[in-house]
Amino acid sequence: MVFYFSGTGNSQLAAKQIAAAIGDNIICINQHLKERKKETFYSERPLVFVTPTYAWRLPKVVAQWIRAMEFTGSRDTYFVLTCGDSCGNAAAYTKKLCAENGFRFCGLAPVVMPENYLAMFPTPEQAEAQVILERAKPRITALAAQISEGKPFPEMKVSVIGKLESGPVNPLFYRFSVSNKGFAASDTCVSCGLCARRCPLGNITMENKKPKWHGKCTHCMACIGGCPTEAIEYKNKSKGRPRYYIMED
């Protein structure tokens, strides 16, 4: 069973490719996060979680969701993390999550895909993004083959910097960077409400024909990346940067 969480579409694309290759069911975590209810998932085949990398770890909202759900059947668990560059020492923290939930950790593998975190990093133009996506597809195919064959992902060597990024930097990132206070919509907003419907945490409502953020943001970039008129900005950091959004609704 393949689970995915995705803000702008990278992890959705990877999850769909993996699910098609191994012939397994696919479940979008986004909608389940909105529903906020405990559920039980049964699978005789390995569990595969495909998510973005947030501050060099599994997104906090995904880890919390996994802890809150019940999983029965197979205990073999794989993690595929999409990232703009690297996922640091994410495997060590994901391994701990597996131990908490009685999962058998079968490895974590990064897949480099187009950068979407325009609140902090430069994002690629469309042509460059397409090149990166095409480059990622063989990597995803190879990971799907390993899952299908029941082979664990090879353990990656982690640098000192990677350990620092996933270690002390991660909580500092959430404390000082993850906030919706910087988001605002300009007068080019057409009140379509897509940002509110797409927010995986139900954090956005439409008030006076413009989006209003309510404090539960996880910085998935779905709202700003998917705005059809590019009306949403994040402070002055997103101005002039290309929007990246390939999510299929």
Automatic annotation (TrEMBL):
Q: Which GO terms describe its molecular function?
A: iron-sulfur cluster binding; metal ion binding
Keywords, A to Z, come to: Iron, Iron-sulfur, Metal-binding
Superkingdom of the source species: Bacteria
The 4Fe-4S ferredoxin-type domain is annotated at: 180-209, 214-237
- List the InterPro entries hit by this protein, alphabetically: 4Fe4S_Fe-S-bd (IPR017896), 4Fe4S_Fe_S_CS (IPR017900), EFR1-like (IPR047964), Flavoprotein-like_sf (IPR029039)
Name-wise, this protein is 4Fe-4S dicluster domain-containing protein
